[in-house]
Amino acid sequence: MVVDPGGRDEHLVEEIKKWCIRNNYTQTDVFEALVDQATASLNNDDHQPRSQQQKKFACVLGIFYHYGIGTQLNRKESFQWYALAANYNDPFGMNQLGWCYSIPFGTNQDHEKAIYWTKKSAHLGNPSGACNLAYAYQRGTKIEKNEVKSFRWYEYAANAGVLNAQVNMASCYRVGLGTFKDLHEALKWYRSASKHPKHDNYLWLEEL
Questions:
Q1: What is the CATH number of the domain that holds 185?
Q2: pTM confidence score
Q3: Which residues span the domain enclosing 93?
Q4: Which Pfam families match (predicted)?
Q5: CB-based contacts of 14: which residues, under 8 Å, 6+ apart?
Q6: 3-state SS assignment for residue 8
């Protein structure tokens, strides 16, 4: 059985709360600051961000709307900010946008757009995007089923520290999905997953 890499990450909200407490901010304070920073680029003449950090703010604001952090949960607002981040060429934003089209979340379901943005995210090196692309290749949803490619993308994501990818690598080796059966390797990845300190989705917190 392989773990679906999509879905709500309940640990993400907890990590954000810890970050706010650690830095003596309320969630509302952080949300309002994000709104100011994320909308600043929209006031530029070309509507383009002036720095990599401004690009990141758009995606992070999408996350706050996604989970209702410091504000009311708003799927449409979340989707719109993820879309803006993706158009800023932010790989994490691309992955989130692909997820929105796949579920759907804040928009209409569109598997072709989901694959398009997930692929872009993965090819730009986003580990979560790589994990989601691997899952797409495994399932063959709006993309040609390819277990070898699925395994390779899981491997990339697992080596980058994505928890679900590590679990899926163990499953691949256990049943021989896209690779040869190897119970020793399966056990290694299960052990690696069990020691996982945190999901890669919160790494952006350290960049703020």
A1: 1.25.40.10
A2: 0.85
A3: 10-201
A4: Sel1
A5: none
A6: coil
